[in-house]
Amino acid sequence: MKSPDQARALVEDVVARARRAGADAADVGFSAHAALDVSVRLGALEDVGRSETEDLGLRVFCGRRNASVSTSDLAGAALDDLVDRAIRMAREAPEDKWAGLAPADRLLRGAPPQLDLADRAEPSPEALKALALEAEDAARAVEGVTNSEGAGAGAARAVSAIATSHGFAGAYELTRYGLHASVLAGTSGAMERDSAHHSARHAAALESAAAIGVRAGERAVARLNPGRVRSGAMPVVFDSRISGSLLGHLLGAISGGAITRKTSFLLDCLGSRVFARGVDIADDPHRPRGLRSRPYDGEGLPVSPTPIVTDGMLETWLLDSAAARQLGLEPTGHAARGGGVSPGNLAMAAGKVPRDTLIGEIDRGVLVTEVIGQGVNLVTGDYSRGASGFLIEGGEIVAPVSEFTIASNLKDMFAGLTPASDLAYRYGVDAPTIRIEGMTVASG
What we know:
Layout: H1 4-20, E1 25-41, E2 44-62, E3 65-71, H2 76-92, H3 125-140, E4 145-164, E5 169-185, E6 192-200, H4 209-222, E7 232-238, H5 244-254, H6 256-260, E8 281-284, E9 306-310, E10 313-314, H7 321-327, E11 345-348, H8 355-360, E12 364-372, E13 382-393, E14 396-409, H9 410-415, E15 417-419, E16 429-430, E17 434-443
Parallel strand pairs: 7-12, 11-16
Antiparallel strand pairs: 1-2, 1-4, 2-3, 4-5, 5-6, 7-17, 8-9, 8-11, 9-10, 12-13, 13-14, 14-17, 15-17
């Protein structure tokens, strides 16, 4: 795999080739990825896989026309062909008055922030196998677990580089280590499956294999013999395993593309109260070892911690340069390579109410631990998804329930949302347990 210095030299070279070939402007992104994954099932090795990929993407501008091409062939002659093809395509493309490189005066200058995103650990296949076996053994040892879908451990290393024709070039390396287990509880005809996993930038920060396995086993056993919930309007509690999905819907609604196309249910809500008072949501791309940390965005702009919702008020859109030009605003440092936007480490701040209290205040409701389907309309905000979880009665979690639907509108859900105090940074997009009042629950 190329080093960051080699990756940076490569993208600078391709930019220079594009300019020599007649492009008015160009930018290049390169990514390399190497991964080792080991999976086991029922105490035996099931698979060992290693993958290595390298991809380069080039965007060229000829006047107001532009085109993008990509390749995994990095030989010199292939790169010349790539440049030639991109320029010919751009000259035939329609004009786009909003497209272009990021503003030159906004580019990251000087040394990028040091975020400690790469670990030197290189676990062997044998070490990964031992971790996966330990996780599966711990899960299978939970009383009530009757079968296994397997466990796995993996290690990955990646290098990313960007260069532009107007003065930016950068590269950085990152690593990721992961461990998961998935098991079944019960007997044929009444079996339930569940899982647990954890990922970290540094191997030493991974949760123990035994803890992951026990959690997977206990989750599967807790789902046994699910009942049905009586339909009606009631509070719905989103477990922290899935509460971050609500932030994903927020991101889709405040992305520059949705705003410029006028396809967002939050189109007229900038600067207004969207969430309940006390709710804060922020993006922090500078968190050391964060799963979504980065030193700059996909256009070479610096990134920084950004308040998105403060005391319930929507503070900003997430804009790349093209959307910012169209809206007459400034880019926010959230551009994704290849188009669109992407945040760093996004999180809803912990609330003041403990999780047990949040649930204990409910006379009748449901705790949702899994959502199914894609029934979310970001144009209207309508929300309807299949779900499973647990029935809440008299402030207590009393029984598993499945095959029901939860429905509302995201505007109402955001406005009626109460976060618990149990925020943990596990996924890169994180939220605490969340209670939402008055959702419609319908039994399947």
